[in-house]
Amino acid sequence: MNFDGFESPQTKRFQRKVTVLSAGGTFLDGFDLTVIAVALPMIANEWDVSAGEKSLITSSAIIGSFIGAAVLGNLTDRFGRKAMYVIDLLAFVVFAALTAFSQDVWQLIIFRFLLGIGIGADYPISATIVSEFASKKGRGKLSTSLGAMWFVGAVAAYLVGLVVLPLGDYAWRALLLVGAVFALIVFIFRVQLPESPRWLLAHGRTEDAKNVVEKVTGVRPTDAELTESDQPKPGESAKLFVGVQCRRTLFVCGFWFCYATAYYGISMYTPTILEPFTNGSHVSVIIGSGVVALLGLAGSIIGMNLVDNWGRRPLIITSFAGLTVALIVLASVIGPSFGFLVVLFSIAVLFANSGGGILNFVYPTELFPTSLRATGSGLATSVSRIGSILGVLAFPNLVAAWGNNAALWVFAAVGAAGLLICLFMAPETKNRSLEEINFEEPAHA
Question: Could you tell me the pTM of the whole model?
């Protein structure tokens, strides 16, 4: 079924509500994954943290998100969107609070890992529930707004970091605790949302699906309007690697892996890269890194406003092309200035986030069928987390062995690989219902 025949002010209000509450989750994803980059210099000043421990502190939540996406995405297809939609936010509240009260490095690493499980789960859950309540003409903008809110969360992490600096040794604890407060607010409102009617139909609960559609639209649908697509049965995850679906799975996993490797490799260490150029000023480091994050947010907003008119395919190709060129320029310049680094990093993340950073909330939910949507999205998210982990762990080691420029050449090559994947595999799905996409092979597939 789809909501294209039920467009009304009431339906649009509900779609905005679902999007806002889902975007609240991705805001928290961006805040909680970025906040550790802001807090790490403060933590290192208080505790005697080794280089290996720094890497684990930075990567623990990303490693947790790999597990959360892989496992909980599948559970979302089995037990329902709403149940997992609420449970994963509860994990945000509990474990974000515990990180703020960690008494040593290993407690912090463990609690960040557990927080990461909730973060990883939220990617497929939030994106799936938004796409299943959306109409085809506005689905791209609604779904990409989730990606944009990730970068709002990243910018907020730097802003909150500036606000709490006067707290001294307690600053990083206050910074991490803010994430728990944000999560509690979103959790309270998420509890009120209904189950996805598409998931109910896929599980034979036709009357329940009718009740949800009536509640959302004010109109009770007929059996004909609740056409259930001929999709794999729940749990048949092997279907992700058969025929046209296999090509789609490889495309989504491939471009997201390349984006995550390059983006996390440079963004999680932006403060560390900029610090030697600021004469030891924490304020300058946070402001410079915040500018980079702000331009990344601008890129996501640009992409959000182009996705339904210009299309998914040209947007993602341009995104990877711009990212790759910016990284090549960065890698080619020896002895750059502080301003040059800020400008070029800003350009790199602006292009990256205008396509790859927001279409990872669109393509997975469009190219996987209802009964496998959260499973497929979870798989793609977990593969992207492998890229994130590689980026976060590889970058400091590459810098230590070969220097900044050589490390950036590696990430430029990853960006180029993503560009090739998109050129040869990216389909165009704008203005098509989820049923149309999953019954027909995309024009460019």
Answer: 0.76
